[in-house]
Amino acid sequence: MTKPEVHTNSYINREISWLQFNARVLQEAEDEAVPLIERLRFLGIFSNNLDEFFKVRYATVKRIVDAGKAGKNELGGIRAEELLEIITQIVIKQQSESLEILDMIQQRLEDEDIHIINETQIDASQSEFIRRYFLRKVSPALVTIILNDDVVLPNLKDSAAYLAVKMIMANKSKQFALIEIPKSVNRFVELPKQGDKSYIIMIDDMLRYCLKDIFNIFDYKEISAHMIKITRDGELDFDSDLSKSFIDKVSDSVKHRKIGEPVRFVYDKTIHQDTLDYLMSKMGIDNTDSIIPGGRYHNRRDYMSFPSLGRTDLMYDKIEALPVKGLSLEESIFKAIKKKDYLIYAPYQTFSYVVKFLREAALDPSVKTIKITIYRLAEISHIASSLINAAINGKSVTVAIELRARFDEQANIAYAQQMEDEGINLIFGVQGLKVHSKMCIIEREEGKKLRRYGFISTGNFNESTAKIYTDYTLLTSDQRILKDVTKIFSFFETNYKIFRYKHLITSPHYTKKAIFKLIDKEIENVKQGKPGYIRLKMNSISSYTMVDKLYEASNAGVKIQMIVRGICCLIPGIEGMSENIEAISIVDKFLEHPRVYIFGNGGDPKVYISSADWMTRNIENRVEVSCPIYDEDIKREIIDTFNISWSDNVKARIICDSQENKYRVNDKEKVRSQFATYEYYVDKMKN
Fold it and tell me: Which residues does Mg(2+) bind (predicted)?
């Protein structure tokens, strides 16, 4: 894999660290032990990640450059202009590697009698099928733009793929055109099988095959088509029109994103130079944009939806989400959690309990109020329908919905409008803060009193992602915790008032202070000759303040184990700075998503599950919640599953100074933590 530039001071630059996370995703596509179709899908994830990186992070650095600033303090000691160049060079190398991996996978697919063919490999029987398919399904969906020197080029859609067409006319003049690859048609078309052989053609190559049908009114001698793609700045810019509702402002801003500044231009490296020059001139691409020569196909994110072709042998075995001992989908969740707390660890255990809990609340005459935070909903959300059902049944339902959940804004806007129509009280976050916490509180009338029930999670209340993201959800009736949750909802409604919390750790007011106090306790224990340790699992750590505090703890002798899936600006294992810190990253079948903090606390560990990564935005600019685990069995379970992850020597990569993404290899028995975690819960059910 590509060896990146290394740090220039005490931190790894955030953007470079993220690119190395994406390199770990690419390693999954390269891994011969990963099933073939899954390898293609990892290529799709790699490409999709890269698209979002350019829309957000590259665009942010480019804004710093455009503002005439160096940005060294914010960027880990690297000048913004230099960083843009480093990013482009890393991405060019990664793109080249991804093309080699794709070629390798396609060769292996052919060994399995799966052939991805292009327009030059079509036989007579396939030709007839393709022409029929093109005329019926593709042609009606096509948008073809004829380019002209006198006509302004329409704004090309962000991350859409286009075929750039060049025609040499009979009079030797040139005519250029663009064909937008339609998103309404599946990118991969399955052709009729021939014996045991399966054949697939991409829409791109079908269009190349049918160019004469598309441009039959032009008198040309030669025609060629090469793919291009443009990525635009994905930042939302809000206007100050006081007459607009917040929903309208977000909606307008999402629409404006479609015409944001271009930040990346990817093109087929075999494109004719005159075509490339013409297009770049038309689009106003300049040298601060990332210009990346690529292969014949772009938008490889579509490989995430590569057809299964009925070949289950070329995919991961589907796991059956396990039940949680003591909970039943056929009995009352309220009755169960009144007696004790329960933990769900999706996707190993079924997320259906959360939906069942809300459905039960919607129907229960004793339930009076439901309050919940929502960040990303599933496309078809049973969570949303349960809340609407509750409102229809006369419950007081409050939803703090984050309309600015990046790239899910449109879906959240649609659900917000639907909920508003049904009488649900909507709260659109807090001025200047995103609501990223994952919590719900339900008040139920029992006798003459209201009793609280609820849940707190590390992940979104999203049935779709719960099948592929690993996340903890605590179901509880612990009145201590839920009283604090009530205060947070009061803060949403009266955010000029800052509340104090006895049990929850909350951002933006208390997270840094509370975590520092917990770290200081470990430092103090070590100074007194007691053992001190910290174990952390999170998606990212990029806050230099938090990194420095962990360096301080390491220098005091506190042993620190970190499992960081994505960005890690901290550099472990450096003598005199971080020699007591070890860090790994696990990338495998599921997306590692939980945030867990474990502090030794002199032999009585303190354990928290959290919505917050240790990034500046999570600590200072978002409403986040870290929840203590008081139930001893659940505490043991979280420590056990952390230990299983820490033991991984199959899919764990070592995070270190060189950033080479080396796999952790040792002589111990092989542990693939995601599979071992599932077996842990299978055994738990048996015992």
Answer: 376, 406
Q: Is 376 annotated as a binding residue?
A: yes
Q: Specify the DSSP element, H or E, that contains 598.
A: strand 595-599
Taking alpha carbons only, the member of 128, 187, 181 closest to residue 157 is: 181
- What tens digit of pLDDT does each residue of 290-329 get? 788 888 887 788 999 999 999 999 999 999 999 999 999 9
Nearest Cα neighbor of 358 from 408, 410, 404, 424 is: 424
Q: Which of 7, 226, 382, 436 is catalytic?
A: 436
pTM here is 0.88
* 384 touches 357 (CB < 8 A): no
Rounded to whole angstroms, the Cα distance separating 452 from 550 reads 37
| For range 538-545, the mean pLDDT | 96
Residue 256 has pLDDT above 80, yes or no: no
Of 87, 70, 68, 113, nearest in space to 13 by CA: 87
Q: Does 132 show up as a binding residue in the annotation?
A: no
Which among 587, 662, 569, 547 is positioned nearest to 6, based on CA atoms? 569
User: For the chain, how far is it from start to end, CA to CA, in angstroms?
Assistant: 44
Q: What is the number of other CB atoms lying within 10 angstroms of the CB of residue 155?
A: 13
CA distances from 636 to 456, 566, 581, 601 (A): 18, 26, 23, 15
Q: Facing residues of 164 across strands?
A: 178, 226
Q: Is the pLDDT at 234 greater than 70, yes or no?
A: no
Classified as helix, coil or strand, 222 is strand
- Give the tokens for residue 377: 């909903």
Contacts of 232 (CB under 8 A, 6+ apart): 55, 59, 158, 159, 257, 258, 259, 260, 261, 262, 263
What are 174's strand-pairing partners? 168
Residue 436 appears among annotated catalytic residues: yes
Q: How far is residue 531 from each of residues 299, 608, 632, measured CA to CA in Å?
A: 51, 20, 21
Establish whether 133 is an annotated binding residue. Answer: no
SS3 state of residue 278: helix
Distance CA(563)–CA(642), nearest Å, equals 9
Would you say 49 is a known binding-site residue?
A: yes
Backbone angles phi, psi at 502, to 5 degrees: -85, -25
